[in-house]
Amino acid sequence: MADKRDYYEVLGVSRTASDDEIKKAYRKLAKQYHPDLNPGDKEAEARFKEVNEAYEVLSDSAKKARYDQYGHAGVDPNFGAGGSAYGGGFQDMDIDLGDIFSTFFGGGRRANPNAPRRGSDASASLFLSFEESARGCKKQVEVTLVELCTECGGSGAAKGTAPTRCPDCGGRGQVARQQRTPFGVMQTQTPCMRCHGSGRIIQTPCSVCRGSGRVSVRRTVGVNIPAGIANGQVITIRGKGNAGQNGGMPGDLEVQIAVRPHPFFEREGNDITCDLPLTFVQAALGAEIQVPTLDGKIPYTIKEGTQPGDTLRIKGKGFPDLRGRKPGDLVFRVVIEVPRNLSGEQKDLLRKFDSLSSDKNYQKRSSFFDKLRKAFGGD
User: For the segment 173-187, what is each residue's pLDDT rounded down to a tens digit?
Assistant: First the structure.
């Protein structure tokens, strides 16, 4: 454990970081070092595993509390397990020192240490093509999950044995302490030193999970991608996260979506945008052309006198709306391409065309020079 980096340092957050700050830092780093984006990069793969390990601890309030108090030892399944009379160590514990003032003055009671506890949420990243995000699809994602140990059924005790109630605290996980104060004799509740607050003792730990009752496994989970999902959005799959404890419900699986860029389409809200290059003749005279959509090419009429920068809109050919509202549009931005490598004949024809043109053929040009003459007092 000595060579392990501090989990807060791994995620680049302070020890006072909120759950949202921790989650945001994790998602950024998981995307940066994801194996799909760094094929064959062993260093990136190692960093990805390190980031996931750090998030697994810091996203779980119980593990985070143990880590803050004991460091890496507090979340090591070997700690306090190997043949110790204290049993499963800190992996199974839910040590809560409580509020000193509430216990000191109110004698507050701690929740049952063996009550069901919900599992923590798990996270994964999923990459989609532009078309998949628009149309929706079914995908599979691989994720490392914490599940109940099948060898011991989650008890943490070796086969043929079972955890026993701690004789010091009677299974409550806390013991009463009395002390004399200027206000009289006060009673406080403190975690049991013998069972470390778990309320039970495992004499013979399970050889597979080493007394923790849980193991890490690699699973493939199916994900239904709704049509219209956007880059950076998160799909939550209820009950597919890490296993709970003491019969508690499992956590959720949060799948962060990353959409790969398209060669020429872009997304703006629910609209799909694209530059549409036209020749001078097509823009000036109008034309019948084929334009691209996500469903293939379709015919489109270019109106006479189309200008650079004009937007051409095809209704309903954008992204579906996740809330069932009207879908977006397909929007083309007109780009007039100036021809190059003209022959002598082509140049002569253009000069002749220009000599036959007047200001009435160029609305913006005529307006510009009118303003220029007025500004400088010309004729």
Answer: 888 877 777 667 777
